[in-house]
Amino acid sequence: TFYVNPVTCQPAALRSLITDIWTMRDGSWQLRIRHSAPAPAAGAGIASQYSVVPQLPPTLDVKGELSYLATAGNASTRTFGLATDVARQSGPWSTRARAALLTTEADSVTRARAFTATVRQAIRLTERLEVFGRADYARDRFAGIENRATFEVGSAVPVPLPPRHTLTVDTGVGFTAEQRLDADDLRFAVATGTFAYAWTIAPGAELRDDLAITADLQSGTNWRATNGVALSVVLTRLLSIKASHSVEYRHFPVPGFGRTDTRSAVALVFAVQQRPASP
After folding, report:
1. According to DSSP H, which parts of the chain are helical?
2. Residue 109, C-beta contacts closer than 8 angstroms, at least 6 positions apart
3. Which of these, 137, 119, 118, 134, lies nearest to 171 by C-alpha position?
4. N or C: which end of the chain has fewer CB within 10 A?
5. What are the counts of helices (DSSP H) followed by strands (DSSP E) for the chain?
6. Per-residue pLDDT tens over the stretch 169-206
7. pTM (2 d.p.)
8. Is 97 left (phi over 0), alpha (psi -120 to 50) or beta?
């Protein structure tokens, strides 16, 4: 089983049966004949040779993102972004961890910095139901947030869609503790809803849209929403490029800060995957 298409160099699972015939000659083994044929599971006929077969989901998926923007002349600014994403699948259990850092400097002075981290542990009970526990941490000076920690439990349900489209809906309840700059700290119970949509436009090209809504169960005015859109294009087996745009809205912001933050970035993504052996 090969995990790259030799024609397009795009990620793919292609299967072929290769037979080697070795002979003993002058005291050593020598390869005499190599024959390639369609794999039995891929179907009959020579047309199925190297046919694309469904890829098994990776058991380990590690990604790293790097983005950088600098200006010079009348104004000297630097914006640096770094993120890492690790996903592991073991039977019905799945673990995902993500951390991201964004910092902005102007004239060699740090103006704002944001750091977020998420850990999610889930178990799939049926094909249509998954339960999870999630912990989030954020430090966002762009929005006046000193520290924010959220813990929640919930369920995830995939929504049936046509091929090349996926949609998963997460719902959960939890608790948030938030320390704000120049404002009172907040502690409140939350209800969350997340819609994760993905569209495989073509092999190696994917469009994702993630919408998350958080409601304060103690105050109807303190609700938040984030939406992130990202287009990823695979360049090689290890490298891809991603363009993203995200919007974060806080109906009850920290005094002196706006309700809406938007961020746009173009990043290089380095990915390493480990897949199980094909049946």
Report:
1. none
2. none
3. 134
4. C
5. 0, 16
6. 999 999 999 998 876 788 999 999 999 999 999 878 99
7. 0.75
8. beta
